[in-house]
Design brief:
With 98 residues, the protein is mainly beta. It has one helix spanning 4-13; strands at residues 21-25, 28-43, 47-59, 71-74, 77-86, 91-97. It is built from one helix and six strands. Strand 4 (71-74) and strand 5 (77-86) form a beta hairpin.
Amino acid sequence: MPGSFLTDDIAMVLQTGDFATEATFDSSTINVIFDQAFVEQDAAGSVQVEGYVPMAYCQTSDVSSAAHGDSIVIDSTTYTIVEIENDRTGMTMLRLNA
């Protein structure tokens, strides 16, 4: 469980207007840091597939009920959650699929 100093820092980082944007998850409005990381994957050992993978970095308590297949709306786009990575510091990364 993160200490209060870390929780306060997370709240500051997730303020809209700086790095974060609003999202809708489970009928609630939450703040997330949205990113579309560029990735390169090896497909079948001979073909490189490149593309962008959307991700949302969230306060863990806001997405504690998240499950694979759930939806989250960011900037009017609905994404499906395909991976959930809780870093055990109070933040969770959701890998998304449009």
